[in-house]
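Page 47, continued from p. 46.
Same chain as before, 370 aa.
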Amino acid sequence: MNGEDARGEGSVRARACFHIALAGIFLPLVGPMLTFILAWNNPQVREKTLQGLWSKRLWLLALADLLVVAALFWLAANRELLERSTEAAKARVAAVDAKVQEAGLFEVLPGPVRPPMDWVGLLSFLPVVAGGVFLAWRARRVSLRPVPLWGGVVLTLGGTYAAAVGLTWAIPAAAGGTSKGATLLVLLADTILFLALALLVRRRLDRTPLPAPPPGPRLSLLKAGLLGAYYLLTGLPRIAVVLGVVNLVALGGRGAGEGVVEQLAQMGLGPLGAAMFAAGVVYFGPLGEELLFRGIILPRLAAQLGERWALWGSAVLFGLLHPHYLLFMPMVVFYGWVFGWARLRTGGLEVPVALHMLVNGVMAFIMLGE
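Result:
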């Protein structure tokens, strides 16, 4: 392809990016505008719709999309950087030892498949501790009625981490050596233990009744699920585009880390291994995390700090619990916020769990497909 053709292709991509982003800006306006037109003879509905059109949230979303437009234009103009980053990601997958890729699920491999727990991994959880200490301090200052919470959180997270350290060595030793299957068993045991501890803690904490939540809008499970899925589908791509450009410009594509789950998905697991992987990542993982963050932390923070502080506080803690996302941690905070919103609007865990399983299911499908 000569230079003129490349410039022409870049121009087409730029125009396509612009049209997509423009649609993203004006899509939120379509519903209120149609309502305004159809309700022309109803003054009350017309007035309420006008207020919605001029709401701060709507225009803040439009301003945020202008940033997305700029990011998309930059990607179109500098697609060579994006292509190099994509090739580097493919090279990392290809760099996985061919012996590991071809080995059977429980065939003993030389060297550890799962990196051992170390002090660096332990220190990565210090931000979670700091966030929890801040929220506990804030609750003691503003709440007239203390609610038991943080002892149960420490038991769940600390117990799971301590058990994971032992399981990392015990299961491979029992299986005769390190293998992909043994590492998957560690992952499954971690997630099941996390769920069991969260269930135990919630049962104990439920002995102290919480004050009745303030009256607020309640949604049906179906409506909350559809709205939550809409927020995820429209919000996550916006955040990913902006953070992706920051990653390429400021960090040279090194701002996205890899955890144990991502490493496992690259090792050629086969049908049984993929099923074990999905059981841990798509089923038991979301159940345990939703039970802890939206079933235990969120309602108890809401009883002390109010819904807004509780929603953002639990979402930030949820993001900090995933330190390997590095620069892309705000994406985890965002979908933690959506899960928390669904919990508050429905009063139960059905929709947050379903949305969490949806997100993890899509991610697992993509990772295993690579």
